[in-house]
Amino acid sequence: MSSDTPLFVTLTVGSLHGLTAQTPCITDGWFGSSYQYQCHCAGSAPCDTHDGTCSSGCHQDWFEPACQYGETR
Please, which of 26, 31, 56, 59 could form a disulfide with 40 given CB 3.0 to 4.6 Å? Predict the structure, then answer.
């Protein structure tokens, strides 16, 4: 086999009955197409993962449109 030949591996997994998927940790508290922006919602509430809006409003010293701008003191 040459180094240019792709290698495919098939894994067989047992029954997944009763298991639930969980959101990867990296997405918690982040938003954007690649989760590149951090949420700053009041009360550490979650933000919309697509546009960053906070139903609880912005955390102190952060402001709209998606609480991504912080005031410096």
Answer: 59
Please give the tally of structural domains in the chain: 1
List, run by run, the mean pLDDT of 10-residue segments along the chain (73 residues).
48 45 58 90 91 92 88 77
| pLDDT value, residue 23 | 39
User: What is the C-alpha end-to-end distance of the chain, expressed in Å?
Assistant: 62
- What range does the domain containing 53 cover? 26-73
Partners of 62 in the beta sheet? 70
Q: What is the pLDDT of residue 4?
A: 55
What is the token pair recorded at 20? 């639930």
At residue 10, the pLDDT reads 43
Domain assignment of residue 7, yes or no? no
The residue behind tokens 């949420």 is 39
Cβ neighbors of 3 (< 8 A, separation 6 or more) are none
Domain membership of residue 64 (yes or no) is: yes
